[in-house]
Design a protein that fits this description.
The protein is mainly α. The chain contains four helices and no strands.
């Protein structure tokens, strides 16, 4: 055991230099009072590195923002014009529906007349009165 301790004492200087030198440039000497902050900094660095790709993509898209904004404006104008067309078509369909309903009522009245009700006084489930409330 003594021989081992003697060898350690002889290499004391070499060991101090070896311990002070960072291994593969990965170790940094940090005072003990700053260890808590270093661990917090490390977790922040890990989160930043995880999100680094997203950050880089965001930065790369900045020059394209004006073009994308213009595309969105054009799409909004197209949507508004299509909305106007749909509203016009709905109005035309409702008008056509009312016209068809009027024609159907007129045809029904002409074909059945006022005196041709059912003999038992009730209306059929297929009659015009049951088409629309």
């Amino acid at each position: 055991m003594n021989s081992h301790l003697e060898a350690v004492l002889k290499e004391k200087r070499a060991m101090r230099q070896r311990l002070a030198k960072p291994l593969c440039q990965e170790n940094l000497p940090i005072e003990a009072s700053y260890h808590r902050y270093a661990s917090e900094l490390l977790s922040l660095a890990v989160n930043f590195i995880d999100k680094l790709e997203v950050y880089l993509k965001t930065i790369q898209t900045i020059p394209q923002l004006q073009e994308q904004t213009n595309n969105m404006d054009n799409a909004l104008v197209r949507i508004e014009s299509l909305e106007a067309e749909v509203e016009e078509l709905v109005e035309r369909i409702l008008a056509w529906r009312e016209e068809q309903y009027g024609l159907l009522q007129a045809t029904y009245r002409n074909s059945h007349g006022a005196g041709s009700r059912n003999t038992n006084g009730t209306t059929s489930y297929l009659s015009m009165e049951n088409f629309y409330p």
